[in-house]
Amino acid sequence: MRSLSKVASRALVLAGLMAVVLVSAAMADMGWSVVHDTSCPPPNQRVTVYGATIVTNGVPSPLLFWSRTKCLTGVPANDTCQLAVLACDATCDNHVLMSGGYYPKGWTPGSKEQFFGPFLYSVKNGWGGPGGLGTSSLPDTLSACFGLYTNGGFPDMTNPTNPNVMSTYVTRDVPNHTVLLEIQRGGMQTSALTGSQQSFSEYRVMVYPTTVAAMNDPNGTGAGSIFFAKAVLSGPQGQLLTYQGTSPSDWVVTQTSGKWQAVPKAGLSKLVSVPDADSAVVRVLGDARSATNVPGQSPLILVLLAAALLASGVWVIRSRRNPVAA
Questions:
Q1: Could you give the 3-state DSSP secondary structure of residue 195?
Q2: Partner of 33 at 20 to 30 A CA spacing, among 2, 51, 74, 228?
Q3: What local confidence, expressed as pLDDT, does residue 142 receive?
């Protein structure tokens, strides 16, 4: 508990510092993990869907944590796990929408294990009246999206095959000691508008040999993993940066209607050799960040946003057995 308090306190101080140096900011970070947990009944597995948000408009705003967790029962129809959050700042001038879910193998006949989403959207001046956010033209000065925001509305998150939401499918081949990752649909999106705003969308996927290895990497840096892949789309330049297990050839980058987007190439998959496919832990992370900064503060904003994400990862790992239900 002492470690958790320290992390939470640092996160609150961090959020306050962000509010001092930023005119506006909106950030959403979301991820999944399925780990072995002996406190759960057989099959001794726990799924956690977690996230962190910041929405602020020049006044101190806390870094908020959200999560849902459950022990798996071994009955696929009972083992889905979803999380959805819509948050705004004190004046509802900045918004974050965060949604995603986990679907186990066999959830529907023949279906694969699936990390659905996340769908993340951070935006300034995106209020669409009593119904909430509802514009796709993005007249705002800053925005970032993990997933594709189009046609005047958000994607149907009750449909696990929605074409605007990225999914990572997992196939475990125990005899051949492999885990197949298939990355399909959706994509990353940032604003192409110029000015003082900064927007980023990021995808990470990691495969660890064991639960212990996964828990020893709370910040999702890939330490101790067998496989690590990371792609970051930066606006307004539309620059795509890739690391380790993925490359620019895995993505298609285009600009349209004032937005940059990077979508996974058709058939994108990664085959990972593992000691034990059943014990391997797959972790998927999505991130959407947008901010407009005081002139001259550009390097500081990047440091603060990155530190916020690290704090959220530590918090989730250390509080896994006592999550905050949203």
A1: coil
A2: 2
A3: 52
DSSP secondary structure code for residue 152 in this structure: T
Q: 10 Å Cβ neighbour count for 254?
A: 11
Q: Tell me, what DSSP letter sits at residue 125?
A: S
Nearest of 64, 97, 96, 81 to residue 312 by alpha carbon? 64
Contact (CB, 8 A) for 286 and 203: yes
3-state secondary structure of 278: coil
Q: Where are the domains of the chain?
A: 72-294
Beta strands 251-256 and 269-273 are unpaired
- 119 forms bridges with which residues in the sheet? 99
The label of the residue with tokens 């530590």 reads: 314
How many angstroms separate the CA atoms of 119 and 203, rounded?
A: 11
Average pLDDT over residues 154-179: 88
Strand segments, DSSP code E, in 109-191 are 113-124, 143-146, 167-173, 178-184, 188-191
State the Cα–Cα distance between residues 134 and 153, nearest whole angstrom.
Answer: 5
What are residue 55's phi and psi, to 5 degrees?
-135, 120
Give the tens place of pLDDT for each residue, 43-81.
Answer: 999 998 888 887 776 665 667 778 889 999 999 989 999
φ/ψ (deg, to 5) at 215: -70, -25
Residue 209 has pLDDT above 80, yes or no: yes
Does this model's pTM top 0.70? My answer is yes
φ, ψ of residue 150 in degrees (nearest 5): -145, 165
Cα 182 from chain centre = 17
**Is residue 198 a contact partner of residue 298, using CB atoms and an 8 Å limit?**
yes
Strands 227-235 and 197-208, by their bridges, are: antiparallel
CA distance 287 to 56: 17
